[in-house]
Amino acid sequence: MPSAVIVGMQYGDEGKGKVVDYYASEADIVVRFQGGGNVGHTVMAEGQTFKFNMLPSGAVRGKKLVIGNGVVVDPEKLLAEIDMLTSIGKKPDLLLSERAHVVLPFHKVQDGLEETTKQGVGPAYADKAARFGLRVVDLMDDEILRQRLGVFVPLKLKILKEAYGFEAASSESEIMARCVLYRERLRPYVGDSAEFINDALDKGKNVLFEGGQGALLDLDHGVYPFGTSSNTVSGAACTGAGVGPRRIDKVLGVCKAYATRVGDGPFPTELKDETGERLREKGREFGTTTGRPRRCGWLDGVALRYSARINSVDAIAVTKLEVLGGLGRIRICVGYEYGGKVMRGFPSDLKIQYSCKPIYEEHEGWDDLSPGEWKEVCAKGYDALPSQMKSYIERIGEIANVPVCLVSFGSEREATISLARIFDKGTEPCRLQPTERPRRQAGNGFYLGQAASG
């Protein structure tokens, strides 16, 4: 039952879309297990750029796609993505969980009034927890749908009016009509996704579980309340897809070579200077979904080590290394100073996170190359990388105490060096090179093998 989970290790935007697309070449099935329309994954392939909010990133590979029960589904976005792929001859082979909850127009209105992403994700998860939510399976039956909307719509109208002073124009009949349209178009895709996934694992299929956002935005383990409304850590693959924990073989964490985050909240390594602006412009650090500029800073090793532990990460993919090119010196935060003491653990106390001072170690930088030059380097393999970059990559693995299995430069598939196949099994631990000093072997074993095809 070969299976792997790919999760972000920072505040999201780590480049998971590309990594999932890359390793999807080895997978039979790609499963999305949490989040909603606020998740943005970008994939560049076949000379085109694909931006997904609902479909798993394996869509471009033509893989079997599953949207699990842990996702809150925006029907309009999902149908738009299906139509987009269908229009270019890539109609997705999709299974949508009948237990997934649905984002309705009222959720987006409420989200906008609360000045968040306006995607309706937070209110949809709140209704799910309060047991007022509407599931995909509820869309499929007129009697149940009318019953659920009869409770849901008056409640939402009252909340919007009394809590926000907003007079909603939509009526119960209008929402019903819209839900019927969703039903007719979504019906061919709806089924029991948990049964399908477990059966596939029983048959030895390669299943790749794709997370959205990053561990530091997790509802329980992230920087609360400056996070998201779902669990973004690897354990959520079990609850969000309907598989037991013993069915997960490996966990791959995706880490950007520096740090970014969107919105408010503490960010100890943030750079509010020319270097931070340089990272933003060169890295094109603007939200896929919202377009908001991202705050940028040095890589936070304290947060990275914490994320590796709570996700049980077996190996790391390091992305966007090209963005650091041309910087004379590069820093990594290895601890926090607070109240005259050095902290190595990631604090839950916001007061500490806002007030601590990062303790940095410096690394020698490398030359700035064009995208085409980085692709040429990647074609030659890991040995062709600048020695300073290899030292930096090695240090990231040491800090997280897990091996690095992939390095990425930009958005194109070809700008990638893979050091292990994600579903291979063997006896050699995954490490950068056989001649390198080996680090701790990954618990479930990422093993060196021939690089996956781009």
Task: Furnish the topology, listing elements before pairings.
Elements: E1 3-8, H1 16-23, E2 29-32, E3 41-45, E4 48-52, E5 64-67, E6 72-73, H2 75-87, E7 93-97, E8 101-102, H3 105-113, H4 121-129, H5 136-139, H6 142-164, H7 172-186, E9 190-191, H8 193-202, E10 207-210, H9 236-241, E11 250-256, E12 259-261, H10 274-282, E13 295-297, E14 299-300, H11 301-310, E15 315-319, E16 329-338, E17 341-343, H12 350-355, E18 357-364, H13 371-380, H14 387-400, E19 404-408, E20 416-418
Parallel strand pairs: 1-10, 1-11, 2-5, 2-10, 5-7, 6-8, 7-9, 11-15, 14-16, 15-19
Antiparallel strand pairs: 3-4, 12-13, 16-17, 16-18, 19-20
Helix pairs in contact: 3-4, 3-6, 6-7
Structure explained in plain terms:
With 454 residues, this protein is of the alpha/beta class. It folds into two domains: 3-90 and 192-418, Adenylosuccinate Synthetase, subunit A, domain 3 (Adenylosuccinate Synthetase, Chain A, domain 3); 101-188, Adenylosuccinate Synthetase, subunit A, domain 2, CATH 1.10.300.10. Helix content is 32%, strand content 19%. It is built from 14 helices and 20 strands. It has helices at 16-23, 75-87, 105-113, 121-129, 136-139, 142-164, 172-186, 193-202, 236-241, 274-282, 301-310, 350-355, 371-380, 387-400; strands spanning 3-8, 29-32, 41-45, 48-52, 64-67, 72-73, 93-97, 101-102, 190-191, 207-210, 250-256, 259-261, 295-297, 299-300, 315-319, 329-338, 341-343, 357-364, 404-408, 416-418. The strands form five sheets. Strands 9-7-5-2-10-1-11-15-19-20 form a ten-stranded mixed sheet, with helices on both faces. A hairpin with a 2-residue loop joins strand 3 and strand 4. Helix 3 packs parallel to helix 6 and helix 6 packs across helix 7. Residues 426-454 have low confidence and may be disordered.
